[in-house]
Amino acid sequence: MPDRNEQHAILRAIQAGDDEARQKLLAQYTPLVVKVASKLTGRYIEQGLDDEASIGLMALRGDR
Where are the domains of the chain? Predict the structure, then answer.
């Protein structure tokens, strides 16, 4: 995970419309989303195979 200053820089870049920074942030937090989904369901969740991981990532991305 990036340090606090790096996180702020990434967030500012995303707010300025930098899609590459957005993708970087999503990639950094994907393992956390999968871990939380696994903990909530009480079973192993595999990204790409389980709907729970996809739903969590959609929420992180802000999909509607």
Answer: 4-61
Largest CA distance in the chain: 38
Walk along the chain (64 residues) in steps of 10 and give the mean pLDDT of each run: 84 94 91 94 91 91 75
In 1-61, which ranges are continuous DSSP H helix? 4-15, 19-41, 51-61
**From the CA atom positions of the chain, what is the Rg in Å?**
13
Both tokens assigned to 24 = 């970087």
CB 34 within 8 A of CB 45: yes
Q: Half-sphere exposure of residue 48, counting CA atoms within 13 Å on the CB side?
A: 0
Q: What is the pTM of this model?
A: 0.76
